[in-house]
Design a protein that fits this description.
Layout (H helix, E strand, L loop, with lengths): L4 E5 L3 H13 L3 E5 L2 H10 L4 E4 L8 H9 L6 E5 L4 H10 L3 E4 L4 H14 L4 E2 L4 E4 L2 E4 L4 E4 L2 E2 L4 H12 L7 H7 L11 H14 L7 E4 L3 E4 L1
Parallel strand pairs: 1-2, 1-3, 3-4, 4-5
Antiparallel strand pairs: 6-7, 7-8, 8-9, 9-10, 11-12
Length: 226
């Protein structure tokens, strides 16, 4: 976690300090902001690998901050909030958040979730050369070849298209409707199980090579690269 920088946007001074200490234990450099407005200014003038974001903030609130941020950056964002309903979490994930921690939180949970996001940010994606790389997975868009740990994967056209969509947008959760329509299957009617079957087939093929889960199910929302 060396040289990683995290922006903490939290107006409660004690919680802000606690989060800073948690990050310090991970060897991560943190910068603190105490309002959405200050957080946006800090982000625009600095370079960060991750943002820890409260929702109830003076100035620009957390939702507004996230909307503005996603217009200019795909940097990972973990929401840390007392709001705990499923609707709150789903809404923020759809808005562009990468993860959600409910207050009060455990230090170890924060550490684990921060580590996951910072490791994810180390992945290389080279769109200019038509090569997408995620962990040990490599996809060649031009030649339509997929390799996992240098093993060639025999994917169908639809399976390849789904995987390409997820790898091109590694921070985004896609619903079945999103995937169905974006890979050119037409209008999604709401009761079609095609996408779930395709993703299940991709997982089975990957499982022959590795136990690592490359496509994560976000319950109630959809799928994301993991």
């Amino acid at each position: 976690m060396e040289n990683k920088r995290v922006l903490i946007i939290e107006d409660d001074v004690e919680i802000n300090i606690l989060l800073s200490k948690i990050l310090e234990d991970l060897g991560v450099v943190s910068t603190s902001a105490y309002s959405g407005t200050e957080g946006l200014l800090q982000f625009q003038t600095g370079k960060f690998d991750l943002i820890l974001l409260d929702l109830m903030l003076p100035g620009i609130n957390g939702e507004e901050f996230l909307r503005e941020l996603r217009e200019i950056s795909s940097v990972p964002v973990i929401i840390i909030s007392a709001k705990s309903t499923l609707d709150d979490k789903v809404g923020l994930l759809r808005l562009g958040a990468d993860d959600y921690i409910t207050k009060p939180f455990a230090k170890e949970e924060v550490k684990a979730r921060v580590e996951v996001q910072l490791r994810r940010g180390e992945t290389t994606i080279n769109k200019e050369e038509n090569i997408l790389i995620w962990k040990d997975l490599k996809l060649d868009k031009k030649q339509r070849i997929v390799k996992l740990k240098e093993n060639s994967m025999d994917l169908t056209i639809s399976e390849f298209d789904i995987l390409q969509l997820l790898m091109e947008n590694p921070k985004r959760v896609f619903s079945k409707r999103d995937i169905f329509e974006k890979i050119g299957k037409g209008l999604y009617l709401g009761d079609d199980n095609t996408i779930s079957v395709h993703i299940s087939n991709i997982r089975k093929k990957f499982l022959k090579v590795t136990k690592d889960e490359y496509i994560k199910t976000v319950w109630g929302i959809g799928f994301i690269l993991d």
